[in-house]
Write a structure and sequence with these properties.
The protein contains 14 helices and 15 strands. By secondary structure, it is α/β, with parallel strands linked by helices. Helix 5 links the parallel strand 3 (116-121) and strand 4 (137-142).
Amino acid sequence: MKRPPLNRRLAEFGTTIFAEMSALAARTGAINLGQGFPDTDGPDEVREAAVRALRDGRGNQYPPGPGVPELRTAVSAHQQRRYGLEYDPDTEVLITAGATEALAASLLALLEPGDEVIALEPYYDSYAAGIAMAGGTRVPVTLRPDTEAGRYRLDLDELRDAVTDDTRLILLNTPHNPTGTVLTREELAAVAQLACERDLYVVTDEVYEHLVFDGEHLPLASFPGMRERTVSISSAGKTFSFTGWKVGWVTGAPELLAAVRSAKQYLTFVASGPFQYAVAEALALPDAYFTALRDDLAAKRDLLADGLTAAGFGVYRPAGTYFITTDIRPLGPGAGADGDGFAFCRSLPERCGVVAIPNAVFYDHRDQGAPFVRFAFCKQKDVLAEAVSRLGRLAS
C-alpha cells in the first residue's frame, strides 16, 4: 500500500529511548541508571496483601469499571488526610491501568482535534504521544536551568504568552520528571490564576507526590477555583515500588471524572484486579513508611549527586522524583561528547559501564536539551556506589 501503516499522528513516535538504552545495558552488562524503576520490591505487607487477594478470589475476574470500592475509598481518604481535599469515592475517583492510562484517557476525553495543550518542557515522552493520539497540538513551555540556584525554573511570562484562544488545557507535572523540579506555591498560584482567567482545564501528573526532598508537594486542585477544573493523576508504582502492578487513579469533579471514565472504559476497560486491593491497604500505611521512603531516596540522591559532581558533571540536585539531571559540557571536549547527549549516552556503557538517558528526547526543542543527561537513583546503595566508582573514570 502507498500509505504507511502507522497513522500520521504517531509517525514521529518509534521505539522509545528507554527500550534502546535498556537493551544496551543488557548487551554490555552496564548498570542501568536510565529507566526509572526500583531494583527492589516494595513493602512485604503490601505484596502479601496482593497474594491474599488472589487466594481469596478478590479481583481475579473483572473488577468494577471505576475500580474496586476499597481502593476508591482509600484514594479519597488519602487525598483528604494529606491535602484536605474531599472527593466522593463513587463519583470523583477513577482507578486506571497506571498513570499512563489515566493521562491518555484524560487527553482523549478533554481534547477536540486542534485543541492546544501547554506542557512543561522537558516532558515525559508519553505526554507528546497522548496529545497526538487525541488530535491535540502540543505547545511546549520550557523549564530553564538556573545554574546559580541549581534548579530548573518556570518562566511565568512565557507560560502566559503561550495561551491562545485555541488553548484547552495545561498539562502540569510536579514533582517534575526529568528535572526534579518541585513547583513552588507562588508558581502554582500563578498557574491557577491563569487557568481561571482563561477558562482552562489543567491535568496534573503527581506520581512523585511522596518523593519530595526539598519544599513540599502542593496539589493544584487545592488552590482557589481549581478543584472544578483540575484532573489530578497519581499512581502506586513510584510510591510503593511495584511499578509492574500498573495501578493508577484520577480524582476530579464529577463532570470531569465522568468524561475521563467515558474514554478510559474503551482503553483497558479494567485492569490489575487483585493489585487494587493491595494498593488500598498500601495507601493506609502509617506516615512512618512515607517518611522512610523519602529519607532513603534523599540519601541515594546525595550519594549519586556527589559522585556525579566529583566525576565532573554539572549537577542539578533534584528537589523531588528519583532522577538527577546533569550537564555533560563541564566534562570537557571528548569526555562530554561535545555536548551531544545522545552520543554521550550511547558511548557511556562501553566507556565506564553505566547507562543514562539523553534529556533531548524529552524536548520538542531538541537543542535546548542536547547537553543534558538524566540518571535514576532508585537503586540499591551498593549499586549506586559502584556506578559512582565507574563514572569516576570520566574524571581521570
